[in-house]
Amino acid sequence: MATGPLDWSLVDGAVPLVVQIIGCLALAALLFSRDRRWWTRLLPLAVVAAALLTLLVKLTVDDWWQPFPDKLPGDVVVWIGVVILGVCLALFRLPTLRWRGRAGALLAGALVVVLGLSEVNIHYDNYPTLRTALGPQDTVSLKDATGKKEPTLDVPEGKALSEVWKAPAGLPAKGTVSTASIPGTKSGFKARDAYVYLPPAYRASPRPLLPVLVLMAGQPGAPQDWITSGQLPDMMDEFAGRHAGLAPIVLVVDPLGSSFDNPLCMDSELGKVQTYLADDVPAWAAGHLQTATGRAHWAVSGLSNGGTCALQMAVNAPRRYGTFLDISGQDEPTLGSRKKTVDAAFGGDEAAFEKINPMDVLARKKFPDTAGTFVAGTDDSTYRPQALKVYAAAKKAGMKVELVELPGGHSWQVWRPGLEKRLPWLASRIGLTP
C-alpha cells in the first residue's frame, strides 16, 4: 500500500486523473484567445508547426536514426504530438501577452508537457510511482552486502535447498541491492555497472549456496530499470519472505554498453556480448560471491531485447544456462531488418548469422535438458506472434517450455508480473525449492 506521496501511483487512480484534468484545462487555456490574430494566423501556424515537428520526430526515430528495432506506438506518437503542441502554443502566445500572461502561458505549456509525458508513462508503465522515477535507492556497497566468506550449507544430492534450510534467528527481513562493475576480462566488452540483489539468506552462516538469475533490461534501457520500473528488490524480498529468507541471487547485467547501442547479444563485429554473459559474468560471480554453480543452478532472463538475449544464451551457451525466461522477446536479434543486422554484425555473412540465430539453432539442434518460459502480452501485436513462433520451435527442439500470456502490451504491465508470476517455477528449476 502507498505510504506517502512518493508511493502514490502514477499510472492509475487519482494522480494521473488529476494530471489529465489539469493538463486538458491548460491546453484549452492555450487554445483560447480574444485576439483575432490568434485565430487567423498564430493558432494555425502553431498547429502546423506542431504537426510537422511530430512527423519529424517519428521519421527521425523510425526511419532515419532507428535507435530501436521497434517503431514508436501510435498512441505514443500522439502524446508526443501533444507535448510539442503544448510547447508551440505557449511560444506562439507569448507575443500577444503581457508579462503576467506570458508567465501563465509558459506554466500552461509546462502542464501540457506533463500531461503528455504522463500518458507515455502510462502506456509503458515505466514509472509506477514517483519513488521509482527518482532512481535506485537504499543501495549498499557490495563489500558490506557480502560480508566475509562463510562456511557453506551442505545440500544432499537430489534435495532442494529449501528442504534442508532453516532460517537462523536474527536473519534480516530484506535483502540488499548493490552496484558492481563486472569487467569484460575475456570478452573485452565494456558494460555499464550491474546491480546485485542478495537475499536475506545470504547473510546466514553457514551460508546456503544460492542459485543465480542473470537478468537483463530492454533497449533502450539500463540495468537500473529492473530495480526501479521492475521493482525487483520488493519482488524478491516478498518471495524471500514466503521462503524463510531464500531467493535467487540476481545479477542485473548490461548486454548493451549504452542505452542506444545494440550489439545484439552475440559475438560479432559489434562486440563479444555472448562471451561476456557466458564467461565473464559467471567468472566475476565466482570471484566475488558464494553461489551455487553449474547450469542446473543458473538461469537467464530479460525483457524485450533482454528476452531475446536470454533465448540466445539458452541456445548458444547451454553449458552455462539450463533455464531461461524470455519476456516479450523477438524471434531473432535485429537492428530493424535482417540485411541491416547481418551487414552490421557480420559484414554481410549470412551463414555467420544463421550459426547463432536462435530459430536456426533450434532447427539444427536438440535441447532436452533445457527448460524455458515465453511470456507475451495479449495486446502485444508485434511480439506475441513472435513468441508463439519461437515457443513452437523450442518445443520441437525438445526443450521443456511453457507459454504464458498476460494482459497488456509491450510494457511493464507485462514485464514486471512476467517475472513475478514465474518465480515459483524458476525457483524449482534452479534447485531452490522442490
From TrEMBL:
One of its GO terms (molecular function) is hydrolase activity. Keywords: Hydrolase, Membrane, Transmembrane, Transmembrane helix. The keyword Hydrolase applies. Coiled coil: none annotated. The chain crosses the membrane at residues 14-32, 39-56, 76-94, 106-124. This is Alpha/beta hydrolase-fold protein. It comes from Streptomyces atriruber.
